[in-house]
Amino acid sequence: MSWSTFRDRWQVFVGAIVTVCLGVALVQSSLLTLVSAATADIPAGLSATEARELRDGYDGAVALLGMTVGLAAFVAIFIVSSTFAFTVAQRRRDLALLRLTGAGRRQVRTLLVGEALLLGALGSALGALAGVPVMRLQGAMLDGFGFVPAGFVGEWRSWVLYVSAGTGIGISVLGVLAASRRAAKVRPLEALREVGGAARVMTASRWVVGMFFLAGSIALVVLVSVLGGEAALPLSIFVSFTLVIAFTALAPLVVPLVSLPFGLLFRGRLGVLAHANLRAGVRRSASTAAPIMVLVAFVVGMAGTMATITEASRQEVARDVRADLVLTAERPIRDQVAAVPGVGAVSEEAPVTVDMGLDYGDGELTYEGVDALAVDPAGYARTHRLAPTAGDLADLRGAAVAVSPSYAPELRFRVGDTLPVRMEGGPARLRVVALLPDTLAGPFFLVPRDLTAEQGPPRYLVQASDPAAAAAGLGRLGEVTTARQWIEANADEQQRQSVDVMVALLGMAMLYTVIAMVNAVVISASDRRGEFAAARVTGLTRGQVVRTALGEALGVVAIGLLLGTLAAAGTVVGIAFAIKDMIGISAASPPWALLGAVAAGATLIVAAASVLTTLSATRTPAIRLVAARE
To answer: Which residues contact 482 (CB under 8 A, 6 or more apart)?
Structure first.
């Protein structure tokens, strides 16, 4: 029976198949790219530095792709479940007819689950094929942003077909289970009359799920402020996930709130009709708004998180640096810098990468390439507001290191610990001589200036009695900027890198969400041909029907934007609390421009899709559709 229904009414299921196909392709692509990066071999013949850089590049790609896989899976499950639930709700009248002809509740559920198995199988097969070009596109994007070594290409693995099939079929069945249980419980006459339990959208399960995840989101925000430190940062990311689930369940409560000002603004005949349709089609409006909410929650939330971290880092550096000028040189020239007239204190600093062995509690050392700063402790102390929480920075000489516990709080660094390292021509172990304050901007490790010869180009932070005269003299030695300009340039570069990370992390998933937005509008309009025809028979022109549908679409966009913005705000608030506790700086940087751009883009996409689908749904003469219904 499931196959017969699927074969005879395949047009109804096209939207669901598309969402499964794209969801499977996204998860498969991200997983294959992750496994390829995790198992990539380091070519023989590379120097130790080159091998470390290549390994660190792959490690960074694995970390990024791990988050991408998790995000892709969440978005796929969310979109597919929402689509399937809406599709089942649209067929309530058909299911009621089955009940009238003698079908039992178990038979209705079996029918729907069987259809979900067929849809999942077909969507998985198409998604496995689509996943190959998606994987290449994703690899090219990561390569372009520099998150994977040049020439990296994801490799196909046959076992992923089983994962794709399980993903597609699994999320299809999960998406239809709750809706099938609800459909099976509805009495046939109630469903046919659109009253009672069939018309009730806020079911007990929606209340339970919505309130549970809303309470969990509030608890996470509070927990972030209590825990503080590095451990609190990941918690704030989960706020978006939990709020998205909560607002999806509670969205029918928001539809009347949004429709109220909508009805006040548009008082004409069409405005009143659009307002009435929004209130009557609560389930339809909430389901269509779900992809918009996901888009806004993750894009704006992630952008706000990144911008807040960047702003807090900028404020931290501005607070801690006590220098007037910054000189960037190609080689060590400290004596020449100190000899320039007007120059007072000088701090010579050079970036260095150290292979450090860290024990994360499993009894085995994990060597990581950590970024450190090679400094002269006396000059560094004069040009930075730095108060070690333990130990003395003056002891930073020989085989020594100063560590900020915020790098990995679970390691519980203590003064006197020795950390194994791998350095060409350097010591085998470094002794911890000082603990630095928690930091967001870094550096997390300070080492003596003469620890190793493998260092990057040095920079010189200079205190000057006459900054203008000193800048003129230093200009002959390298590139000179004021400390303020240097701080702003670093913040701009960090923001650029954050944008690259956000695009790499969210790009494919959000493209999928945009397609889901269009798909939701198409599915919604496909079930309203009779409704549009009835409106035209009662006196509305085709253009008026299109404008009414457009007004409804704008109301749906407003619902999605409102809920998505609230979810994004929860993420930003969580990060702001964590930063305040970690480094004592209050910073919040909402991405208003991006929010406006996303709002405009979502409005344009949904409006265009609404107009085109309504025009398509009203091509058939209205009297013919009304007669067919009768």
So the answer is: 324, 325, 326, 467, 471
Question: Residue 274 CA to chain centroid, in angstroms?
Answer: 33
- How does strand 325-328 pair with strand 459-464? antiparallel
Neighbours of 11 (CB within 10 A): 8
* Interior/surface letters 590-608, b for 16+ CB within 10 angstroms, e for the rest: bbeebbeebbeebbebbbe
Considering only the C-alpha atoms of the chain, give the largest distance between any 2 of them, rounded to a whole number of Å.
98
User: Quick one: angle between helices 592-617 and 529-537, nearest 10?
Assistant: 70
- Classify the C-alpha dihedral 21-25-31-35 as positive or negative: positive
Tokens of 207: 């209340």
Read off the pLDDT band of 441 (50, 70, 90).
confident
Which of 20, 27, 239 has the alpha carbon at shortest distance from 138? 27
The beta-strand segments (E) located in 252-389 are 325-328, 343-359, 365-375
pLDDT above 80: residue 315: yes
Count of H helices and E strands in the chain?
Answer: 20, 10
Query: What's the chain's length in residues?
Result: 630
**Chain-centre distance for alpha carbon 54:** 26
Q: How confident is the model at residue 8 (pLDDT cuts 50, 70, 90)?
A: low
Quick one: tokens of 344? 């007072």
pTM, entire model: 0.81
Q: Give CA–CA dist 34/71, Å, rounded.
A: 13
